[in-house]
Amino acid sequence: MVSVPSISCAKALGKRSLSFVHTRTQQELTLTYAWGQAYNPRALAQISQFLRDYQTGQTHPIDPKLLDILWAIQGEMGRKGVYEVISGFRSPQTNRKLRRTSSGVAGHSLHMQGKAVDIRFPGIDTDQIHQCAVEMRTGGVGYYAKADFVHLDSGQYRTW
Asked: Residues 59-91: pLDDT tens digits?
């Protein structure tokens, strides 16, 4: 079982980088968001802009722990590549809209707090990503097989 970096071990981790492509906006982002214990404020701002609510344009700070979860999954899977983002931050307005039109959207979704992301990783089955995240036992892990994505969040450990 791999764990998400804690502050106590982050210093030994060195550089942490991620790459994304947003499936809704087609924008791409590759950056180093942390080095050891230090998070790069400029990179975190870029990630918050990138993971903005694509319907309203609103931004919200993204929880660095969520980024560490993504980074740890990538490392555990032994793959480097580009995460496909389906949804990052959602404004309350967008979340309400999605709840009316889609099943499985939580009324108090952690997407509205910048603590959740829905992703795929090209070249890896979403079921494998799901299993890896479940084994890590860090944050929430939802598997949406029909829609072919995994929900990850930095809240309490739970699965669905």
From this structure: 999 999 999 999 999 999 998 899 999 999 999
82: tokens are: 């580009």
How are the residues of the chain apportioned to helix, strand and coil, as percentages rounded to the nearest 5?
Answer: 35, 25, 40
Query: 34-37: long-range contacts (C-beta < 8 A, 24 or more apart)?
Result: 34/10, 34/64, 34/67, 34/68, 36/10, 36/11, 36/12, 37/7, 37/10, 37/11
Tens of pLDDT along 32-51?
999 999 999 999 999 999 99
For the whole model, what pTM was predicted? 0.89
Distance CA 111, CA 114 (A): 5
